[in-house]
Amino acid sequence: IFVLDPWFVQSGKVGVNRMQFLLESLQDVNQSLLKYNTRLLFFQGNPLQVLQRYLLQWKIGGRATFMPTLP
């Protein structure tokens, strides 16, 4: 699951090249996952709200998180 936070885009710290790299990388990850009969789920919105909504909808009781840091 990848959630693109609108704040990330609107912060002014993301140029066209960085966004293009991110989107191409996500496409590559998805292509790699397809080999294993799964895929990357991509959402836009507040990550906390998006994850809460889908965890409830999919009845998932546990979760793991990864918090990358930007330079």
Question: What's the main sheet like?
Answer: 2 strands, parallel
Low-confidence stretches: none
Envelope shape: globular
- Cα distance spanning the termini: 22 Å
Output the strand order for the largest sheet.
1-2
Integer average pLDDT: 87
Keywords:
mainly alpha; two-stranded parallel ribbon; 71 residues; 49% helix; globular; 3 helices; 2 strands
Detailed description of the structure:
With 71 residues, the protein is mainly alpha-helical. 49% of the residues lie in helices and 8% in strands. It contains three helices and two strands, in the order E-H-H-E-H. It has a two-stranded parallel ribbon. The protein starts with a strand and ends in a 14-residue tail after the last helix. 0% of the residues are buried. The mean pLDDT is 87.
